[in-house]
Design a protein that fits this description.
It is built from three helices and twelve strands. The protein has helices at residues 5-12, 57-65, 78-84, and strands at 17-18, 20-26, 29-35, 38-42, 47-53, 67-72, 100-101, 109-110, 115-126, 130-142, 150-152, 155-157.
């Protein structure tokens, strides 16, 4: 039996993930996108992975600069997730009206998130439709207290407790 994209999409609905926004900058161009394909793979050295769809503006900036930022969203930030996923109408940029800051590389990070990481790409693995990036975390800033936004079965959820 041939495994299709729809079969994988349906299977992955059963995998619960956190929600984050990946951002990058090249000169005056900034962009970001919502991802749930972000994970830590090593504490020493501090390495993370993220997979970005090929041809997206964020992936293009990361490819050109070799740096990106990750902001982990809190449970009350489904609206930010939708904004950076391109699900909200309007002609304004994704960063319009948001407080941002920078750490080491100059990538924009969202002040409203729980924690932000500044990352430098150390390996890239392109596929037909996306690129998997392995990056070293060069700086971390905790910006807010709270619980993370989680995603399961195509819906946002809050952790119990």
């Amino acid at each position: 039996m041939q495994v299709t994209a729809e079969m994988v999409r349906h299977a992955m609905r059963h995998w619960t993930t956190g929600v984050s926004v990946v951002t990058s900058r090249l000169d005056d161009q900034i962009h970001g996108m919502t991802v749930n394909s972000f994970t830590s793979i090593s504490l020493d050295p501090p390495l993370v992975t993220v997979t970005l769809a090929a041809g997206t503006r964020t992936q293009s900036l990361v490819e050109q600069t070799g740096v990106f930022g990750v902001t982990i969203l809190s449970e009350g930030q489904a609206d930010l997730s939708d904004r950076f996923a391109g699900r909200t109408p309007g002609g304004e940029g994704r960063f319009a009206g948001l407080e941002i800051f920078e750490l080491v590389s100059g990538v924009p990070l969202l002040q409203a998130g729980l924690v932000s990481l500044d990352c430098r790409v150390v390996h890239r693995y392109p596929t037909e439709t996306a690129t998997l990036y392995i990056a070293q975390v060069t700086a971390i800033q905790h910006t807010n207290e709270g619980r993370p936004l989680v995603y399961h079965n195509r819906l946002y959820h809050k952790l119990g407790g």
